[in-house]
Amino acid sequence: MGFEFSDPGWLALLGLLVPVVWISARSRADLPRWRRLASTAVRCLILALLVLALAGLRKTVASDRVTTLFLVDRSLSAGSRAKTWSEELVGRAIEGMGPRDRMGVLTFASEAMLELTPSRPSRLAPFTTVVDPSGSDLAGAIRFSCASFPADSARRIVLISDGNQTTGDAVVEARLARALGVEIWTVPLPDEPGNEVLVESLEVPGRPAEDMPFDVRVQVLSREQARGTLLVTRNGQVVARQQVQLEPGRNVFLVPQRLASAAVFEYSATIEVDQDGSPVNNRATGVAVVRGRSRILYVHGREHPSGPIPALLRGSGLEVDVVSSAGLPSGLAGWQSYQALILDDVSAFHLSGRQMEWIAGLVREMGLGFAMIGGPDSYGVGGYYGSPIADILPVSLEIRKGRNAPVVALVLAIDKSGSMDAPDSSDSATTKLELAREAAIASASLLTPQDYLGVVGFDSAARWVVPFRNHQELKSVVAQIGTMRPGGGTDLFPALSQALAKIGTAGAPLSHVIVVTDGQVAPADFDRLCADARRQRITISTVAVGQDADLPFLAGLARNGKGRAYLASSAAMLPRIFTRDTVIASRAAFVEKPFHPLLVQSHSILRGVDTEGAPALKGCNLTTARPAPAQMLLSTPAGEPVLAAGRAGLGKTVAWTSDNGRRWATPWAQAAQFSSVLAQSVRWILPEAEDPGLRLALESAGENRVRVVGEARAPDGTFRDALELQARVIGPGGGSHQLPLLQTGPGRYEAEWALSEPGSWLIHVADPVTGRGSTRVWTMPYSPEYARIGTDRTLLSEIARVGGGRYDPNITEVFEDPRTPLRMSNPIWETLVLAALLLLPLDVAIRRVFLPDSWFRRKIRERVAAPTAAEGTLSRLAGVKKSVREEPPSPSRPMPTRPPHPEPERPAPPEETEPAATVPAPPAEQELSPLERLKEAKKRARS
What we know:
Blueprint: E1 2-5, H1 17-26, H2 33-54, E2 57-62, E3 66-73, H3 82-93, E4 102-108, E5 112-119, H4 138-146, E6 154-161, H5 170-179, E7 182-188, E8 197-203, E9 213-222, E10 226-234, E11 237-246, E12 249-258, E13 263-273, E14 283-290, E15 295-300, H6 309-315, E16 319-324, E17 340-344, H7 353-366, E18 369-373, H8 388-392, E19 395-396, E20 408-415, H9 432-445, E21 452-458, E22 462-470, H10 474-481, H11 492-503, E23 510-517, H12 526-535, E24 538-545, H13 551-560, E25 562-568, H14 574-585, E26 590-591, E27 598-599, E28 620-621, E29 624-625, E30 631-635, E31 641-648, E32 651-656, H15 666-669, H16 672-685, E33 694-702, E34 705-712, E35 726-730, E36 736-740, E37 742-745, E38 748-754, E39 759-766, E40 773-780, H17 793-802, E41 804-807, E42 823-827, H18 829-848, H19 853-886, H20 930-942
Helix pairs in contact: 1-2, 2-18, 4-5, 5-17, 9-10, 9-14, 11-12
């Protein structure tokens, strides 16, 4: 046992003991010397106790217990037999547990989960915890386990893994764990039997020159010697097929290539062998981009063919590829062929959420030009409100706010039965009800304070979640919508009856009900409700979530209710459907009446365009202007934007809210002004050409890491130093992040990042001075879990060394005493403070509590004289008895009388001890003992 201080700096306050003693010695208090000394001692003791408490005095003892946590790797790279092998290993380890030891099990892959809390199990149950096996986060597992130990024992981690980490740095985490007193032992998983072959990488130049030869470099790893076939394709066409001999380790193959035209070329390399453990990692891809003239991707809606715009652009000397919304590039690499994108009346329902995230990311991070052309399926009515694309537009889709629009009364009837608690899809954890709540909030955000809103949830019964009224705050609406909980059946009739009854009381010019459900509705007299709604001019729209909904009934209800029927194949479409229907119902989708657009401000897009002599437009989508730096160039007489331009990150964007000439802009499409505005708009949004002074290259940095290398030179060839370069990285999912490049040499800048998921990654680096940059593509064809062969014993050995443990130990030794026993430190400041508080009354008593001196003297005299007085009394009694026997009878005499004024009683002087043989004189009458008084009474009675 020992002691230590957590904050020893407070010990300096012990110096206050000197003035305390000095002040006590100089005190003029009229106290006896013993009281003064005692008070000083108690005060010093109180001060010392408080100082020790402030300094954090702790009692330390060595623990005789060991808690061992087994970290079991369950990732894909561990193999199919790893789980059973680990269970048997941990089961044998239990046999070596001491009587006071404990053990626990933690399984991990991409994440860590506690399988068994630290305890003393008699036997080990099979592992049942489910973890995501697509990654190996050894560092996270070590960090998680350090927080899972009890505090009263030595701590040890036994890591059972193949060492193929895909996230984090396990060596760094092991060093931190050792600093916390945790030992780390490592046990390597056995290699899977048989051969394993994988294509490690496929390297192509990122920007090869047109018609210049280059080599496609393919690296193949093999565990054993084998023969196989290497197949290399370019954009799906076979360019090389070779019979190859694979040696153990890394094998490199070169395929000569030459590209004669400007385009994006995607290469693929596949190795085929007879015996292979996992074929998933037998393919790799790479992208080469040969730059030529700028290309524009023109996308039209599925319901109608392309309009006159592609021909007008080609007539202006621009290269245009025309596709429907179904023909958009399926991956990020495919976008490298294009410098601008035009969406012509394309509904948001025809784009996936990931595609919209890609487009927004490419505009912001890579400088892709973007233009949107209006129509009945575009802007707000197209379902873009709240989407990633809405954020990059130079106009706002908050179409009702700030306008003198008619009051709208809206009621949302949302199915909250038990089936709405199901996930939206097999790969999504979000439930249908959660997406319905999100859609309701999106609709509410479109309304103005003057509009009425109510939300009624229904299952077997109906309940108003948001009471029907106007002037509602969005925060309050969001909170109330969040209270909807699933459960019960699907009875729409009470909810629709209450909705129609309430909405009719508002007297709003526009009244609308949206019904959403995913199941079969209980039968009732809905025809009567629809007739009542028509009389009150209330429209009803329906949304069926999935194919299990009662589609014929919902379609008929919408038809009888003069509304629209929607089928949402996924609940993720609900926010777009709700906002689209809200926009249509509020008559804020578009304006259809002739008007001449007004010039708001000049711009290079309008250079040479006679706006005053331009023909009238017949209509446009309703939007509102954004604040600067967005610019509204043309507007309606009411002030709504017709043409606007702006920036979103690195990209430029243009919004034309009229259409391509099919419905609203027919006179314009036939006039020269339209082709001029269109061509100049597209040329304006095109990004700058790549900066020839900034060369960019990507290379592998090992362990699923990529290194981006930039070289900056001035026009005269000299190096440019001290630049603040930032790389913008877009992942396969559309998410992006920035990466600073650090200068590592003259004009050389580098940065690294880890690939977290397979797919194509876009990297763009722009010159901070000119704004021009370069873009490259890096592909990761399969999960990092499959990127290695066998167990990384070197890494596991290093983890054990840094963690202060052993590599590949005898499993029965994992509970032996640690090399450095854990010393438990327990704070005792509470005891010290309590002792100081108890001493405080004693100090007060010593100085303030006084008793009379006579009280002390009498107590002392009584304790000293008590035995002597008792002995003298017995001696006197014996003498009296003897004198009574010897004394002759005396004549009777009269009884003495009491004096009229007795003398005051005086205290008797202290008795002196007399020899036992001496007979004392008879005591005075008032001092007679009871026995003597009895004898005197008898004598008086005889006489």
